[in-house]
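Section 5.1 Outputs to date
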Amino acid sequence: MTHLPDQPQPADRPVRRPDPGEGLLVPGRAEHQDESRPEHRAGHRSGRGLDDVDGGRPRWQRPVAVAVIALVTAVVVFGGYWAVRLATNVDSLDLSANGTSGSGVDDRTDRLQILVLGSDTRSGSNAAYGAEDDSSGYGQADVMMLLDISADNQHVNVLSFPRDLLVDIPACTDGQGGGSFDGRSGEMINSAMRDAGPGCAVDTVNEVTGLEVDHFMLADFTAVTELSDAVGGVDVCVTQAIDEPKSGLKLPAGTSSVQGEQALAFLRARAAFGDGGDLGRIQAQQAFLGSLTRKIKDEGTLGNPQRLLGIADALTSNLTVDRGLATVPAMVTIGNRLKDIDPAKVAFIAVPTVPAADPNRLVLDEPLASELFAALRSSADLTTPAADVPAEGVPAEGVPAEGDPAAGSTDPTASPDTGPQPEASSVPVVVADGTGGAGVVASLVPALTGAGYAGAGSMPAPATPLTGIYYGEGFEEEARAIAALLGLPASIAAPDPSVYGVQVYVGADAAGGLDQVAGPDVSGAINQTADEVSCQDTNPFG
């Protein structure tokens, strides 16, 4: 995986820290619940035969009309039965474990982020996979993937978190009455939902990435076995034969179709792939999901009601979701958004990591991880250069939005006193000059004050090669609005607790003008897309 160049860190105090220079559901899970419901198909009434000269129906048509009505009624009742069955299959819990109720997005039209969790619990129907002493209750997240769907449904990212990744887990309260738990530092990310449930995993991912999860789906072992059976098996490829006792995976070299227990074993196996760690397992999981995506698309599964209902039944009977997703219409909405996605636009990504002090654990690979998260906050499209991707943020209060008559020119060198002036903003903004004296910086403060940032000022700073925008807690939207105002890619904005307000740290890359500044290229973080067929390297020592 290609490492991205370092972004600068904020300039020296008072606005800078003193160290400058620095189990997935891709088209296949929710969309299988897009019932294409029979009652919808049954709404087209047949002709009524009103061509008689006296306006009545011929007698032979009457029993036909009765039969059609009876058929339509039967189909509607059947559809209603499945709607009720699918809805009652699903369990639901709170989205968050910190008291918040959700992001408030419109599932039909907004960018959407769904955390997909695979529990390793041995409770209930999963008792066949081990004793409850191994993992009971909520269990730990054996699989943790963030499904990111762009607002225009043209891009889907599947971001995998290794279960061995060490992160800070926030304080969480179990909404089911299991108590409250203090925050923990340097803990494996898979333990986030162990005590307080999937809502705590959602809160943890939000803090690690700076994104905001809108829904979660929690599946257990049984969901994988039944789903793979429902689709008739999934093709996977391995470079050498595998016989791995711990997971029970047995495969010959080359391509095989796996389903049921062997599909589950393929997704759970660690020692069989790569170097025997979690990263090799993640690549195998991503290959499995890519193959599943292709199969569903190629075989027209979404157009086969019987198969579709079987898949939906298999999934929902082994699924727990947040309360906002716990209805059939809500699930159908997600399915409708995914059903036409091009597999080439489904990108599988592993969170960038490096070994921790304990070689059996991982930590975020910085600055690569922060650059990836910043790029994702800016846009779901990781294949287009960041400078060409419009920001998806909301302009701060007092900053004219694009197209607003008060917006005027976004050229920082343009006169700021033409046209109506925006309302003054109280956001503290400082421009740090790390260019070594380039003239471009002199125009930025007037541009900011002209746009309503009355308190904008400047300060000298150590020379830095790259331009960055840094913001303190609560100022993310303002930072993104300032980036848009200055014509800078939103992906160069990053949080920094030592900054109060927003700091624009101008580097040598902007010496010839801000239009020369490009966001980090994170396309190298994509492991594969769903249209690519990959064969997994096996671990000879597994």
